[in-house]
């Protein structure tokens, strides 16, 4: 399988995986899929409800199963959830089936972008900064290890982030038929 067939976005909550993923799919004429939306479609309930009923382990199982199915597709831009890299089998799937773009983000940016968020269960903590920092400690090395490309794009203007992303992807990612 040509790992260039798909583009997978990884990174913490609030990095902009969903937002940028949609734009990149449009730009490259590929299908956009958001892993969380896909899980919700299959379950018929929100991610928050899955966490409520089945806890994080239940959600991770569903996430992994859904990711495996998405990896069978070709020509997709997939925005993963921030915790998708936690399971080693998920990291292996991402690397084997797509070009992996990592969007880093600072905890300050996360706090500001997600200030009003009520949909992300892991963020509903009394001390959000502490929670996000603890998550970053565990996850940053996993993002780094899985990434084919790390996008340095601190701008809060999504249009600028998009420009940088396309520039870097055009140099590094050989899409589908264009692959040598
Ligand atoms: N580069 C950016 N600058 C400013 N706000 C952004 C940027 N990228 C995303 N956002 C905003 O941050 C929030 C979270 O973005 P989202 O794409 O859902 O992130 P993720 O899928 O990585 O959790 C949204 O309100 C989105 O509009
Ligand atoms: O970081 C995480 O563990 C999660 C991130 C969320 O997706 P986003 O990264 O798109 O916010 C979603 O999958 C769920 O709330 C868990
Ligand atoms: Mg998202």
UniProtKB/TrEMBL annotation:
Cellular localisation: Cytoplasm
GO terms assigned for molecular function: ATP binding; magnesium ion binding; shikimate kinase activity
UniProt pathway: Metabolic intermediate biosynthesis; chorismate biosynthesis; chorismate from D-erythrose 4-phosphate and phosphoenolpyruvate: step 5/7
Residues binding ATP, per UniProt: 14-19, 120
Cofactor-binding details, from the entry: Binds 1 Mg(2+) ion per subunit.
Keywords in alphabetical order: Amino-acid biosynthesis, Aromatic amino acid biosynthesis, ATP-binding, Cytoplasm, Kinase, Magnesium, Metal-binding, Nucleotide-binding, Transferase
GO cellular component: cytosol
Pfam families: SKI (PF01202)
Cofactor: Mg(2+)
Keyword Repeat set for record: no
Catalytic reaction equation(s): shikimate + ATP = 3-phosphoshikimate + ADP + H(+)
Positions annotated to bind substrate: 36, 60, 82, 139
Residues reported to bind Mg(2+): 18
Entry's EC annotation: 2.7.1.71
Primary site of residence: cytoplasm
Recorded family membership: Belongs to the shikimate kinase family.
PANTHER family from the UniProt entry: SHIKIMATE KINASE, SHIKIMATE KINASE 1, CHLOROPLASTIC
Name under which the protein is recorded: Shikimate kinase
């Amino acid at each position: 399988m040509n790992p260039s067939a798909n583009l997978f976005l990884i990174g913490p909550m609030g990095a902009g995986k969903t937002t940028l993923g949609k734009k990149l799919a449009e730009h490259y004429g590929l299908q956009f899929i958001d892993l969380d939306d896909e899980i919700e479609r299959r379950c018929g309930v929100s991610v928050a409800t899955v966490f409520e009923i089945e806890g994080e382990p239940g959600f991770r199982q569903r996430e992994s199963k859904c990711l495996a199915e998405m990896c069978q597709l070709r020509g997709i831009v997939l925005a993963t959830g921030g915790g998708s890299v936690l399971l080693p089998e998920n990291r292996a799937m991402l690397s084997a089936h797509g070009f992996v773009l990592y969007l880093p983000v600072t905890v300050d940016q996360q706090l500001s972008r997600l200030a009003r968020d009520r949909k992300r269960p892991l963020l509903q903590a009394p001390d959000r900064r502490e929670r996000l920092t603890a998550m970053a400690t565990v996850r940053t090395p996993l993002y780094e290890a899985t990434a084919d490309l790390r996008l340095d794009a601190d701008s809060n203007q999504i249009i600028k982030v998009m420009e940088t992303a396309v520039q870097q992807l055009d140099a590094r990612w050989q899409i589908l038929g264009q692959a040598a």
